[in-house]
Specification:
The chain is an alpha/beta fold and about 375 residues long. The chain has helices at about 20-45, 55-65, 80-95, 95-110, 110-125, 140-150, 165-175, 185-190, 205-220, 235-240, 250-265, 265-275, 300-305, 305-310, 350-355, and strands at about 135, 155-160, 180, 200, 225-230, 245-250, 280-290, 300, 310-315, 325, 335, 340-345, 365. Helices cover about 50% and strands about 15% of the residues. The longest helix has 30 residues, at about 20-45.
C-alpha cells in the first residue's frame, strides 16, 4: 500500500482529465454539426428547395444548437420530415454544447485549471531534481520522514494516494514535490525520478508492499540507497534479498524509546530538543572521506573541522574496520573511506560535505 491509512490495489487509479472530456465533446459536436448539415441539405434536395445551400444548412444547425434561433431560417413549415429532424436536433443535440459549457465552467469555478497547471509545474520541478530522496507513503511514519528531511533542507519527492494529506503537508511544512498515485507502479516511480534519486524510504503499511517497492526500485536504480519500514522480523530477510540497504522496525524503536524515557530522560530530552525543535539548527551527520577530499590522509587535528565549521566529531569508523572509534583523539588519520559521525549546524552542512565528501550531498544523515 502507498498510504498508511487506506488500502489500495496494485494498479493506478485513473484520474479525472477534463481536457480529455472536452476533446471528445468537441469531436462529438463537430460530427453532429456535419451530420445535421448533411441531413438538412439532403432534405432540401428531397423537397426541391434550391435555397437550402450547404451554408444555409450549416447556419440553421448552428443557431439551433446554440439556441440563438433567428426564426424559421429554412422555412420548415409543413415540411414534416424537416420539422421532426429539427425537434430531434434541438432536444438531443443541445446536450453536447451544454456538456462542453459545463466542463469549461467546472474548470474555471472549481479551480481545476490552476490544479492542472500546478501539477505540470511540479512535474517539471521533479524532472530537474538530482540526488533527491523519494518517500513512498506519508502515513504515520512517512509523515515524520518528510518533516525531518524538509527541516534539513533535503530535496524530496513524496508519493501517496491521499492528495488531501499531501496538500496539507505542503501548507504546513512548505511546498515540496509530490505525486498522487501508487508507489508500486513503475510509471509513478519513474515520474518521481527514481533513476536520478539518491535514496528511497519505503513507509507503506504492509511489509509485502514494502518488499514489492524495494524490489522494483532496486531494479530501476542499482546505486539507490533504500531504507524500508518493517513490522515482522521474518520480513527483514525478504527486504534484504529484495535490495534494501537497511530496515527499521517502528515498534522496536518505540520500545527502546520507552525504556530510554524511563532510565535516561535527560539524554532523550536533549536529542528531542535537537531533532524536533523547529528552532534547532543542529543535526547528527555521517560523511565519508573521499579520495579527492582536502582532509584525506590528514590527522583529525590537521583537518581542523572544528575550526572551519564548528562541527563536533563524535565518532569515526576506519575503512578497514567495522568498529567505531568514539570521541576520537586528534592523531586519528582520516583515510579515504573513513566514516565520520559529527554534530554540526545545518548551516555548515554544505561546507562539511564539500570538505569531507568532495560533493554537495551527504551520504546519509542520522
Amino acid at each position: 500500500m502507498s498510504s498508511a491509512d487506506s488500502p489500495v490495489p496494485h494498479f493506478e487509479e485513473p484520474r479525472y482529465d477534463p481536457f480529455r472530456f472536452m476533446k471528445w465533446g468537441g469531436l462529438l459536436l463537430l460530427a453532429l454539426t456535419v451530420m445535421a448539415t448533411l441531413v438538412y441539405w439532403l432534405l432540401g434536395r428531397h423537397y426541391g428547395r434550391v435555397d437550402w445551400t450547404p451554408m444555409n444548412c450549416l447556419f440553421m444547425v448552428v443557431i439551433t444548437l446554440t439556441t440563438i434561433g433567428y426564426g424559421d431560417w429554412l422555412e420548415l413549415r409543413n415540411l414534416h420530415l424537416a420539422e421532426v429532424f429539427t425537434m430531434f436536433l434541438a432536444l438531443v443535440g443541445i446536450a453536447v454544447p451544454a456538456f462542453l459549457v459545463s466542463n469549461v465552467t467546472a474548470l474555471v469555478v472549481e479551480g481545476l485549471f490552476t490544479d492542472i497547471f500546478r501539477r505540470r509545474r511540479m512535474h517539471k520541478k521533479i524532472a530537474a531534481l538530482r540526488d533527491h530522496i523519494i518517500i513512498c507513503g506519508v502515513g504515520s511514519t512517512g509523515l515524520h520522514c518528510v518533516t525531518e528531511l524538509m527541516s534539513t533542507g533535503r530535496q524530496i519527492v513524496a508519493i501517496d494516494h491521499n492528495e488531501t494529506k499531501l496538500r496539507h503537508l505542503c501548507e504546513e511544512l512548505g511546498e515540496f514535490p509530490y505525486i498522487v498515485g501508487s508507489a508500486e507502479s513503475d510509471e509513478i516511480l519513474l515520474e518521481a525520478g527514481i533513476e536520478r534519486a539518491a535514496g528511497l524510504i519505503a513507509c507503506l503499511t504492509e511489509d509485502k508492499d514494502n518488499v514489492f517497492v524495494t524490489l522494483t526500485a532496486r531494479q530501476m536504480n542499482r546505486n539507490l540507497r533504500i531504507i524500508s519500514k518493517v513490522l515482522e522480523d521474518n520480513s527483514r530477510r525478504k527486504l534484504a534479498i529484495a535490495g534494501a540497504d537497511g530496515t527499521v522496525n517502528p515498534t522496536y524503536i518505540g520500545g527502546l524509546r520507552l525504556v530510554s524515557e524511563l532510565v535516561r530522560p535527560t539524554v532523550v530530552t536533549f536529542l528531542d530538543n535537537m531533532m524536533r525543535d523547529g528552532r534547532s539548527t543542529h543535526r547528527f551527520e555521517q560523511l565519508s572521506v573521499a579520495k579527492s577530499s582536502p582532509v584525506a590522509g590528514k590527522k583529525l587535528s590537521e583537518a581542523s573541522l572544528r575550526g572551519k565549521s564548528n562541527a563536533l566529531v563524535v565518532a569515526v569508523k576506519p575503512p578497514d574496520s567495522d568498529q567505531f572509534i568514539y570521541n576520537p583523539t586528534a592523531d586519528v588519520v582520516l583515510l579515504p573511506g573513513t566514516q565520520i559521525v559529527l554534530l554540526a549546524s545545518t548551516l555548515d552542512m554544505n561546507t562539511l560535505r564539500s570538505l569531507i565528501s568532495g560533493q554537495g550531498v551527504a551520504e546519509h544523515e542520522l
